[in-house]
């Protein structure tokens, strides 16, 4: 190495006196670059009480992983002074400007790691950075906690409450979104009424006012309604399209499954053809909107509609409910929406399909809040979009799926937190 390389790296690493690069070692075989950083000061201020010019007691050695230089894995090493203070009689280690206390990564490395974890599954980010995913999870939790402590929820007025399961059918997590700011406010394990009470406390702790929440959009869970009654006293509940239509899709699936079970040979002849089909292969066509059908699904659904199967009736009921929602969104007229819904309910009650009769009862009992959700179109698309993001967060947490991991990555990606470290390359990428 020529003289001057150290000075060059001192400025490349952004170091200022008393810190400077003392030595640079490049190992081309191991594709590794090691920087020996030196603190040239003979005396330093006490990190504890601030007293100036205190004696350096010793210099324990420490190392930090830094951002790669091209393909070279970069490490910083330094003997970090501990100051023996005559003023407060404490011996304390001085902070280094490139890393937070206790971390074996430099701040820039951590910032890049966080930026990657917003875009990639954590396992994949760890592989790219050549570190353990456990190390990344620790940092995600640290920075998210720090950023959330400074998060401001004072303007929250309209929230969406939803549950999601981490593993199929078990360990539920409740998530609360701000439907105006379109961001995740709160996540917690469980889906009982206490989760809503916990949210209200968290809202308060972040400068929000539970009494200022005017509107809650949720599924038909009685537990959430109870929690809202206790903790968000001024909020009107509405049930959004996403959840209501999902219930109709479930009812339809139940009808189809029962028909398959009871009449496994359920076949019919499509008019004008000799084609015989079973209802087994119809599941996806029945779930999708006609616009999304493949040619095969279009043919199968055409056949279904001309059959006398219960599954066909169930499908027509589901589609009719979708249309009730579409007309309500277009008319924006609560009374018309209510009349329209009532017509659907009366059909569902008389349809001789048990799952739809049950659904009709559920909706009738909550009709006012269902109609509110029909007109309040603001929440509907958003709830679906948030659900998509939650699925991505789940994939990001794959391989390390505890509830707290999942909640931390969801906060990182969905909370629009303002106090996270900036992307290390942000200035270079601007423009
Ligand atoms: Zn001191």
How would you characterize this protein structure?
The chain is α+β, with helices and mostly antiparallel strands. It folds into 3 domains: 1-99, no CATH class; 158-240 and 385-399, Nucleotidyltransferase, domain 5 (2-Layer Sandwich), CATH 3.30.420.10; 241-375, no CATH class. The protein is 47% helix and 20% strand. It has 16 helices and 15 strands. It has helices at 5-12, 107-119, 122-129, 133-149, 193-205, 222-231, 241-262, 283-287, 295-305, 310-331, 334-349, 354-365, 367-375, 377-396, 403-414, 426-429, and strands at residues 19-27, 32-39, 43-44, 54-58, 61-69, 72-79, 82-84, 91-93, 158-167, 170-178, 183-189, 215-218, 236-239, 267-269, 276-278. The strands form 4 sheets. Strands 11-10-9-12-13 form a 5-stranded mixed sheet, sandwiched between helices. Helix 6 (222-231) links the parallel strand 12 and strand 13. Helix 14 (377-396) crosses helix 15. It is elongated, with a radius of gyration of 30 Å. The chain starts with a helix and ends with a helix. The relative contact order is 0.10. The structure holds zinc ion (ZN). Zinc ion is lined by residues 46, 48-49, 51, 85, 87-88, 90.
Q: What is the strand and helix layout of this fold?
A:
Elements: H1 5-12, E1 19-27, E2 32-39, E3 43-44, E4 54-58, E5 61-69, E6 72-79, E7 82-84, E8 91-93, H2 107-119, H3 122-129, H4 133-149, E9 158-167, E10 170-178, E11 183-189, H5 193-205, E12 215-218, H6 222-231, E13 236-239, H7 241-262, E14 267-269, E15 276-278, H8 283-287, H9 295-305, H10 310-331, H11 334-349, H12 354-365, H13 367-375, H14 377-396, H15 403-414, H16 426-429
Parallel strand pairs: 2-6, 9-12, 12-13
Antiparallel strand pairs: 1-2, 3-4, 4-7, 5-6, 7-8, 9-10, 10-11, 14-15
Helix pairs in contact: 3-4, 4-15, 5-6, 7-10, 7-12, 10-11, 11-12, 11-13, 14-15
Zinc ion binds at residues 46, 48-49, 51, 85, 87-88, 90.
């Amino acid at each position: 190495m020529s003289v001057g390389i150290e000075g060059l790296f001192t400025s490349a690493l952004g170091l200022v006196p008393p810190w400077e690069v003392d030595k640079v070692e490049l190992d081309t075989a191991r594709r590794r670059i090691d920087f020996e950083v030196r603190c040239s000061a003979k005396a330093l201020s006490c990190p504890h009480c601030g007293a100036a010019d205190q004696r350096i007691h010793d210099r324990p050695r420490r190392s930090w992983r830094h951002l790669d230089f091209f393909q070279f894995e970069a490490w910083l090493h330094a003997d970090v002074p501990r100051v023996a203070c005559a003023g407060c009689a404490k011996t304390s280690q001085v902070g280094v400007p490139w890393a937070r206390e206790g971390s074996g990564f430099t701040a820039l490395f951590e910032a890049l790691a966080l930026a990657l974890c917003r875009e990639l599954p954590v396992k994949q980010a760890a592989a790219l950075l050549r570190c353990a995913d456990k190390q990344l999870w620790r940092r995600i939790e640290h920075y998210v906690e720090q950023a959330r402590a400074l998060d401001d929820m004072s303007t929250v007025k309209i929230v969406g409450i939803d549950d999601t399961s981490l593993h199929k059918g078990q360990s539920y997590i409740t998530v609360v979104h701000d439907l105006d700011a379109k961001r995740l406010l709160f996540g917690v394990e469980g889906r009982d009424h206490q989760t809503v009470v916990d949210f209200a406390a968290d809202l308060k702790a972040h400068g929000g006012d539970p009494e200022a929440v005017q509107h809650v959009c949720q599924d038909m869970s009685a537990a959430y309604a109870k929690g809202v009654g206790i903790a968000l006293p001024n909020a009107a509940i509405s049930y959004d399209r996403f959840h209501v239509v999902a219930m109709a899709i479930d009812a339809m699936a139940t009808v189809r499954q029962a028909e398959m079970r009871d009449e496994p040979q359920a076949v019919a002849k499509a008019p004008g053809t000799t084609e015989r089909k079973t209802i087994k292969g119809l599941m996806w066509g029945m779930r999708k909107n006609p616009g999304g059908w493949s040619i095969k699904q279009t043919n199968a659904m055409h056949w279904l509609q001309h059959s006398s199967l219960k599954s066909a009736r169930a499908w027509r009921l589901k589609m009719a409910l979708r249309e009730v929602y579409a007309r309500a969104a277009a008319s924006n007229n609560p009374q018309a929406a209510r009349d329209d819904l009532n017509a659907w309910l009366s059909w569902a009650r008389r349809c001789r399909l048990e799952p739809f009769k049950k659904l009709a009862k559920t909706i009738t009992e909550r009709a006012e809040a269902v109609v509110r959700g029909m007109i309040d179109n603001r929440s509907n698309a958003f709830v679906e979009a948030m659900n998509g993001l939650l699925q991505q967060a789940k994939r990001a947490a794959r391989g390390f799926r505890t509830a707290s991991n999942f909640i931390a990555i969801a906060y990182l990606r969905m909370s629009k937190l303002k106090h996270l470290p900036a992307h290390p390359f942000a200035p270079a990428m601007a423009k």
